[in-house]
């Protein structure tokens, strides 16, 4: 079968889309003889996981290591979930591993995420790598990625999301994510104010936990920043190429992880500088050149939207901000709308190609029910993100700003034909 057929098969294989637990996926992994012969970083958290993985990858590559990365979800193409030595894996490489998982599962059903995670882990385990970076999909304790014993756990920012699976508060969510830690192994917590449950679990299993303010710190001014940790200091560094104030928090956790692993994977100060300067990750406060200004951000929960709002506010003045939004039904959409609302003059709500999403009309209803919104705000609905973006471009002046956010599906919907090259209609010749 080709890749599309295999993915359709994965969607039909298990009766429940999200079915947390490790028993099924562990059983199949054991039949496959799945194991890694190189160090493994595992990254969990509510926000910042993808950026953390990308910065780790960039620095390790600059150090000459053969890297492998598994992240999810993808923006446009499924193959984006796996990178080997910095390159997105080709689907021809993936196909034999789908068959390998299929043969090994026998009568065990696997969810889409479990099946495809095993595929990616199989690819990475046989790619002659020096280091592997794994991003947790949902939670930590019962996520399929957690069948692999990590050599260094990284937990990024913790906030409220996926409450039906992880719990309704930061303490319960933190405890779920803390289970990626392993005894006597480094566990980096880059959240400046972590839930106590994370620290308690680390102490319980005797992980080597690194905390902001105790084991590492960052400082800086408008031009440069510095990191200080156990036995290491890096000063006079340029800010990471990934935009946004939150990226310094992610970068600090990355440097802590690399410092904790320095005996196994030594990196130079120059590799750190080069990696942070060259790192790229689509859809994370990504600003597209041209007029009007176009910002793409996969922020999809209130915590991420608060960060997006802060970053947008720091950009300076724009006469009008147009916002394209599509979102999943399990998100606190009212809070997301309320946080961004003070910066917005026109909303463009759109449908997304998944039954898990709110419709454009439902998003419009959430907006109409906001307790506070500017009286001159406008809103309209569209069939998909690209049509919504086209409408925003048509209504924009060159000095305006367009923001696309709310879901990986929303940003992916406008990146599907490549990075947009936009100019306001009245500037076109």
Name the CATH superfamily classification of the largest domain.
Mur-like, catalytic domain
Output the CATH topology of the largest domain.
UDP-N-acetylmuramoyl-L-alanine:D-glutamate ligase
* Helix proportion: 25-40%
Structural class comes to alpha/beta
CATH class of the largest domain: Alpha Beta
What gyration radius follows from the Cα positions, in whole Å? Answer: 21 Å
Strand content: 15-25%
What is the CATH architecture term of the largest domain? 3-Layer(aba) Sandwich
Q: What sort of overall outline do the alpha carbons produce when their principal axes are compared?
A: globular
Biggest β-sheet: strands ordered side by side in the sheet: 4-3-2-5-1-6-7-8
Count of separate structural domains: 2
The separation of the N and C termini measures: 46 Å
Poorly predicted sequence stretches spanning 5 or more consecutive residues:
424-429
Report the mean per-residue pLDDT as an integer.
Answer: 94
- Beta-strand segment tally: 17
- How many helices? The count is 15
**Largest sheet entry:** 8 strands, mixed
